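Section 5: illustrative case.
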């Protein structure tokens, strides 16, 4: 498809297949981006000039509350390769449209361990730095080397390192100052040659057949996949966006006050002295696991996951999320922050 081909832009397009909640929102215009040059070409098209734009990957971190009156761009850039290696690490680059889980599986199949704890996280490679995805003792930022992106206003290609991306807990430059300004086109990861297993989480340790200290990268990958499949619903079967809330991080004094009232509170000490709380535990203690508000519900096995039982709207899911936030704040004095982007 050429850049000048008018079929690059499709009008009145259903986004049901491009969001894992399965909401039938429609975009005024839609296009599939298969090369980095197409971002600027689309935005220069007179039909979409001045309209808002929305970048989509796997659609696993978005909640549509209405139709999108702009141009939705599906990032479908493909390709992955070993770029180089040095004495300490191997550097692997993947295009932004690559499926994240498939990419992790590919690294292991090619003898490149280091990302196995992040197996089965939904979405694409390009979305991983935006959210700074993490699971089971590993954050993407620990394996990040650099990324390339297109500045949408100018069409210029930029390269950003970890410091410039300003990674935080489920946070980055792209969710704040850089929001809507850049389209990530590829990400390069630094995978250490001196690999050691990360199997401290109890669920992963229990799922490993051998001892955690002796686990192979593939064994950890398999354990993570098994645990996630046991806990989390398949979006293809039951619409959801994975974990809907971030695990809140509180200072030590707040934690001690909470623990005095709730001795069983699930917590994870952080390197900076703060404490991360398990949002799912807080929600469960408020009695929300398995409860529903219409067709929007809290999953019966994982209180962090909100689901569309069929026919729910984005507004109904947000109403459910707000009710949960209110109850958690009233009982624990803790504010839960949603993970997905609301459109």
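Designed sequence:
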């Amino acid at each position: 498809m050429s850049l000048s081909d008018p079929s690059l832009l499709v009008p009145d397009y259903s986004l049901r297949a491009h969001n894992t909640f399965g909401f039938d929102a429609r975009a005024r215009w839609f296009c599939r981006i298969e090369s980095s040059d197409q971002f600027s070409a689309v935005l220069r098209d007179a039909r979409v000039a001045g309209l808002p734009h929305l970048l989509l990957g796997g659609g696993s971190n978005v909640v549509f509350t209405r139709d999108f009156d702009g141009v939705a761009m599906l990032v479908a850039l493909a390709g992955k390769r070993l770029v180089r290696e040095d004495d300490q690490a191997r550097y692997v680059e993947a295009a932004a449209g690559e499926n994240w889980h498939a990419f992790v599986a590919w690294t292991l199949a090619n003898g490149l361990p280091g990302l196995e704890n992040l197996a089965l996280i939904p979405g694409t490679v390009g979305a991983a730095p935006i959210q700074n995805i993490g699971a089971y003792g590993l954050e993407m930022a620990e394996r990040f080397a650099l990324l390339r992106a297109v500045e949408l206003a100018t069409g210029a290609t930029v390269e950003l390192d970890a410091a410039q991306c300003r990674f935080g807990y489920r946070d980055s430059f792209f969710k704040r100052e850089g929001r809507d300004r850049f389209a990530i086109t590829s990400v390069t990861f630094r995978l250490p040659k001196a690999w050691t297993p990360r199997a401290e989480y109890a669920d992963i340790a229990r799922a490993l057949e051998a001892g955690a200290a002796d686990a192979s990268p593939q064994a950890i990958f398999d354990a993570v996949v098994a645990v996630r499949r046991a806990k989390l619903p398949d979006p293809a079967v039951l619409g959801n966006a994975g974990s809907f809330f971030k695990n809140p991080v509180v200072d030590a004094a707040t934690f001690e006050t909470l623990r005095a009232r709730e001795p069983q509170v699930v917590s994870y000490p952080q390197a900076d002295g703060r404490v991360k709380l398990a949002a799912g535990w807080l929600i469960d203690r408020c009695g929300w696991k398995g409860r529903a508000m219409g067709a929007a519900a809290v999953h019966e096995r994982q209180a962090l996951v909100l689901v569309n039982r069929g026919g729910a709207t984005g507004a109904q899911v947000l109403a459910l999320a707000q009710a949960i936030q209110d109850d958690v704040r009233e009982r624990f004095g803790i504010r839960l922050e949603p993970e997905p982007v609301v459109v």
